[in-house]
Amino acid sequence: MTKIVLLGAGHLAVHFYEQFTACPKVHLIQWYNRSIQKIYFAKEQIKITDQINELEDADLYLLCVKDEAIEPLSEKIKTCGLVVHCAGGISIDQLKGTFRKGVFYPLQSFTKERFLSFDQLPFCVEALEKKDQQLLCEFAKQLGGIPHLIDTEKRAQIHMIAVWVNNFSNHMLDLGNDLSQKHQIPFEMFRPLIEETFQKAMSMGPQKTQTGPALRQDLKTIEKHLDLITDQDIKKLYLNLSTSIQKKHEQ
Amino acid sequence: MTKIVLLGAGHLAVHFYEQFTACPKVHLIQWYNRSIQKIYFAKEQIKITDQINELEDADLYLLCVKDEAIEPLSEKIKTCGLVVHCAGGISIDQLKGTFRKGVFYPLQSFTKERFLSFDQLPFCVEALEKKDQQLLCEFAKQLGGIPHLIDTEKRAQIHMIAVWVNNFSNHMLDLGNDLSQKHQIPFEMFRPLIEETFQKAMSMGPQKTQTGPALRQDLKTIEKHLDLITDQDIKKLYLNLSTSIQKKHEQ
Question: Which are the contacts of A28, defined by CB distance < 8 A and separation ≥ 6?
């Protein structure tokens, strides 16, 4: 049974805490955070601490902290166990210390307030030693996920693509939501369209499901839409995105 | 029982044909298309024609043709019934003729190859006369949808917003898919992230679910990502979108 120490109290750490306590194959033995208040709610279930030099002996130390905290925090960890960070865009080399090193990056967007199953979730796994790769792959499977051996370079690419499919597509919905509010149209009206957009893109592939005035080179409609947008930045973005669609599909 | 004549053979017309023949409250009496071959498959079920001056008498004539074909086709229709077009961005005034006029715009993205339920689907309804508004609202309900009385101006705004939530968000997935192929990462890995992105945005609202380096003003990660993108247009778009997220969320 894998003995785990969890470090951090952000969205991902809280999700890990919930999954670990629900998973019989995983033994969470301690939770560290520099502010003890944030993890105080868990003190009946699990040992908590805000002292980095009082970590218990474990198989695996999971650093679920902000990107910029990974290096300074790792420097303070004294252990012979395996220490991994969980960040998409950070090199394995930013872990500083004499311990064994690895990365355990779940390709998902976590929010504290929202339950999320780890079932079938891809975990990008990296470790310097083969036995640690195996340990992390095994651990991903214990959580119900699917491990992928991915090095730092490829993980950075995955992280960059995740920005397109998550951050940028969410921004499109967000701007649509803003425009709905501005024009007093309930955003709820767009729900069936949005659901179909994503289901269709995933089942047929997004290249085949592109539609709209930009794809059709329907300049009349594009001009009409630009007339309806008053914010100059949003107007420019509409034009840039339409040009991007046109360029991609005329190739 | 509403007697219908359907005109056109695009994605929407084919979906209407399938729904009408499955719906006992709707009586599809004829299908017109200028190319008879496209609708030949239906000839055992329904009268078909390619002669616009041989349309049967009906309560409702549904023009499901390309935007630019609405005006010239409508000019040729001789009837005392109600003639409606189904386009988001076209004014009711582009229907030319002495008949009663209306618009019946389903807020959805249709593809021939994909089954789609009309259940709970919003229909934007417009008509010059009140009884025709009622007829179209009733018709939307018979199909299982939800009618909304929307004038031409508001419909144009809805159509413009649909471009953001459908065309542009699909383009984000499409660019992500391209980048995956370029870097030999299976796009399937992003499926749980994409599903969560849209489910979360719809349940919590897209403003609350924005995350990523742009929102965090994490310039180091943004620069790293830009280094990974070789296409200059895509690089510029990444930067524009990141700036747009920053501007929106610093307000």
Answer: A4, A5, A6, A17, A20, A21, A46
DSSP state of B57: P
Residue A121, token pair as written in the block: 């979730």
Structure token digits, residue A196: 């179909």
What are the counts of helices (DSSP H) followed by strands (DSSP E) for chain A? Answer: 8, 8
pLDDT tens column, B222-232: 999 999 999 99
Domain stops at, among B120, B150, B180: B150
Pick from A109, A163, A191: which is nearest to B213 by CB? A163
- Verify whether the Cβ–Cβ distance B107 to A67 is below 8 Å: no
In the listed set B150, B179, B200, which residue is the last one of a domain according to the structure?
B150
CA A44 to mean position of chain CA atoms: 29
CA dist B139 and B248 (Å) reads 41
> Do A93 and A179 have their domain in common?
no
pLDDT in tens, A62-88: 999 999 999 999 999 999 999 999 999
What single-letter amino acid sits at A4? I
B251 pLDDT exceeds 70? Answer: no
CA–CA separation, A28 and A10 (whole Å): 17
pLDDT at B143: 94
Which is nearest to B89 in space by CA: A215, A172, A238, A224? A224
Same domain for B188 and B138: no
- Per residue in A191-202, pLDDT (tens digit) is 999 999 999 999
Q: How many CB pairs under 8 A join A and B?
A: 280
What ipTM did this prediction achieve? 0.95
CA distance A148 to chain B (A): 9
Residue B138 and residue B220 in one domain: no
Q: What is the dihedral of CA A193, A194, A196, A197, to 10 degrees?
A: 110
Write down the pLDDT at residue A111.
86
Q: Are residues A124 and A184 in the same domain?
A: no
